[in-house]
Fold these 2 entries.
Entry 1:
Amino acid sequence: MRRSRLLAPVVLVAGLGLLASACSSDKPESAPPGTPTTGTPGATQSPAAPDSTSTPSIPPTPAGPPTFTKILKQPVDGQHVVTQQEKYLVTRSSDEAGTTTVTDRTTKRVVVKHVPPAGFVAQSPVVIDDRWALIEDIRDGGPNPQIRASRYDLTTGRGVDLATQKALPRISEPEIGAAGGTFAYSSTDAKRRSCLVIAELATLKSRTVSCVAEPGYVADPVVSADSVTFSEITSPETTRRCKRLLTAPLTGGVAQPIAAAKNCIQWSGASLRGATVWSEVGASDPDQYQSTGYVRETTGGAARSIGSIVTDTIVACGNWIHWEVRTVTEGVERFQLQRWQPGVARPQRIYATPPDAAITPPTCQDGNLIFEVAHLGAGSKYTEALQVTTA
């Protein structure tokens, strides 16, 4: 495990705790969004040139802007939504360790209350299906950094440390990408290579997708309904450093590289039905918090720019690929959620934060996009978690 790439799962937003997904040591070093923002929800278009490339067949797009449902409203230092599954709500408290609670949505009964061991902190996301939940903890300090993953049976509330079962290749990096009960992560094999593993939560069956020899490593897994997109970093911390993106089908097959606009500076992305959205930013760029985003309608299609996006916020959900955008107008910082799918000429803005609010990167669960907004203006300060169906 590369200790230098472990990050705590809690970031500070305008001086107040707000949960967000953790990522690798290549995480942008600029501060996360936290200054006052303005705007209202709605579907608008942001500039991009149309593309005549043929597109995969996808379900029809519903007319009009999406409808947002409020999951939970809490004090900023209270409970925060990690995800919401059909049967269960997963929240995490603002205590230092990040106590994770799984609650039955029908009975309101607490099924699991996971408190990380001493010295560990909880990590996002929580992988969950109708019966099982995987919760990851990390210890990033001292001489023995460590990652622990526990799988809970939600019918009994009992948890088991997966390392003791040896049912899966051991998790070696804190990043996990998930879509329903399918998840992807990094592991180190017997040859000390860093490998991307795809696994099923219910059965613990897994397969290795791709490996990189030391000192290289794989990172940034993003799982969609049909594929996993991830990065390979070779020759890190040298002038020959190269970071490139690959994608592989969940059903099997080898990983294929995603052609870059500029070689070796790809960051992360998501692929869905042959289409891809990805971002690029150089390791020496003074502002790695923002990247240049690109879309490609088909594997061999032309790439086109979609402008600046907030690094490491791309997620596939339902029939769409989503990401976060930051703009500054007359010194005022604003944040939006945008989405795109093949056949749509321009990305659509589906949400803009209200005044004096901050937003977390979106996550996906069972075709529902979930994110949290922290209201930090005058008066009472609170967070609300929102969900939108993305079919």
Entry 2:
Amino acid sequence: MEFNPNLLWNKENKIYIISYKKVENTKISSNKKNKKEIMKLVERIADLFNFHKAVRITGSLSIYTQIPNKSRLISDVDININELNFIHITKLITKKGYSLCRLAQRELKDGIRTCVFEEIKPSEFIIRKPSVRTVFLKKNIFKQNHKKSPLDIIDIFVNYIDKNNWECTYDHRINPIIPEEFEKEIILPKGNIRTVSLKYMAVVKSILLKNEDLFGIGNKLDREKNKYDLNVILKNIKNAEEIKEILKKRKTIK
């Protein structure tokens, strides 16, 4: 990939270039070891963010913290942050060795994903509201003796409530998501951390599957995992038909 500096917000901003393998149809396994690793990861996230109430676990990790009899390998971490607390949370985690970055450029070739992340200020992020991948990037991952962790790159979704009282994020491709609702809490020995509900994730996974092309090649490679996750959720919520009603309703207000 040839780097294009014109894609940066500011050519003086620091950049990080990371390459990693993107595996299609990763083997989905469900075992006790995975469940233990999931809960260890949740505890590390809660501690990292000081159990802050404005932070919610989202993505696949949120699903398997709420379903006791199912799990799978989780290789990444997604965090949902309330818009009003975003700058405070960013200051908190930058003190712990992370940088706030936006995805400026990427390439997926021969199974290798190369990403150019641009370090940005949280105030810039709030003003511009970029509808691109935004992450907290751990600065020491480039050290030779660094041990790889799902917490190396934390994907961020900043949420707000729109005029129709639906929850949205700065990633406009997925808006609106769900009518405003209370968060769920995961009870941990040192304190609690919030997570989005299974209903929330059922809607998100349905959107990713139904609008596959809109989210790019990376989402296509995650098709089997998204199908598996959605099927697990629908089997573990009381009213699966409610998801269909939410999806119909969001179409009328989109």
